[in-house]
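User: Here's a structure from my thesis project, written as structure tokens. My advisor, Dr. K., wants to see whether a designed sequence matches the one we expressed. Can you design one independently, without my sequence as a hint?
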């Protein structure tokens, strides 16, 4: 899949000889899930998909509700080598009424079902929102950066990572959590100043090609135990570290684009910084911690 026009390209890591695996993708009827299912099948893997809706095709998607822990759910996990978990309420504006069942309860059910079915590896689609509170700060962002989610969605993704850490430590599973950057549903996923959240948003851009290759690496690379990695394209000047991604997954993104800070982007960014960081800090100092 070609990268974005005008984006910079770098060399990828050498690919090892691919070994066919049986991979189950949740959320397979969705935007990213559908792309990943097709990509995994094209690279020689035996792929199955589940979602809240079924879909016929060369890689059919079967209906399954991860919010319900039952035998019907387990049959989809039997015999799988890896489960890639993309299903979730994906909106950063989601409230607890949907985040709790779809992003937390469903993750618990997924890991318990995978454990019972003998699945060796789970790839959990986490999110950059786990570190959302660092937008107006400085410094590199990696797996060791203390989490700072700013909304229920980010909190649920952090919870998913910690559930994964538990199953890796106590049940011998391999769990890879990918903190996915920004893959747009619009603009053909091309980077630019149209992206929300200013420089922060643009620096998290993740091309389709890097998403597909990165998730494939997370599902197939010779990894054991628990790992958290960033999954963004190699965007110049970004704070998101890809060192762990390259080391753990043996994967290096091939696309990247610098942030374009137009006047509109700079003005909007300044307003957001004032209302979300400067003003709260000022009010906090005035009122004191006891208030």
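Assistant: Designed independently from the structure alone:
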């Amino acid at each position: 899949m070609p990268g974005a026009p005008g984006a910079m390209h770098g060399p990828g890591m050498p690919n090892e000889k691919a070994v066919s695996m049986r991979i189950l993708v949740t959320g397979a009827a969705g935007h990213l899930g559908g792309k990943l299912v097709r990509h995994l099948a094209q690279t020689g893997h035996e792929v199955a998909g589940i979602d809240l809706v079924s879909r016929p095709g060369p890689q059919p998607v079967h209906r399954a509700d991860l919010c319900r822990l039952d035998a019907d759910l387990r049959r989809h996990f039997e015999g799988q080598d890896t489960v890639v978990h993309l299903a979730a309420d994906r909106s950063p504006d989601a409230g607890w009424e949907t985040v709790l069942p779809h992003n937390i309860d469903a993750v618990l059910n997924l890991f318990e079902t995978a454990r019972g079915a003998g699945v060796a590896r789970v790839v959990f689609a986490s999110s950059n929102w786990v570190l959302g509170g660092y937008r107006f700060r400085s410094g590199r962002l990696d797996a060791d950066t203390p989490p700072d989610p700013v909304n229920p969605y980010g909190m649920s993704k952090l919870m998913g990572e910690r559930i994964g850490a538990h199953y890796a430590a106590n049940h011998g599973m391999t769990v890879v959590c990918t903190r996915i950057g920004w893959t747009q549903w619009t603009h053909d996923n091309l980077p630019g100043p149209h992206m929300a959240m200013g420089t922060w948003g643009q620096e998290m851009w993740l091309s389709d090609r890097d998403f597909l290759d990165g998730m494939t690496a997370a599902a197939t690379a010779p990894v054991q135990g628990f790992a958290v990695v960033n999954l963004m394209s190699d965007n110049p000047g970004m704070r998101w570290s890809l060192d762990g991604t390259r080391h753990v997954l043996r994967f290096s993104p091939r696309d990247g684009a610098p942030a374009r800070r137009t006047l509109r982007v700079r003005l909007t960014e300044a307003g957001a910084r004032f209302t979300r960081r400067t003003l709260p800090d000022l009010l906090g100092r005035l009122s004191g911690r006891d208030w």
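When you compare it with your expressed construct, this may help: Residues 263-287 form the longest helix (25 residues).
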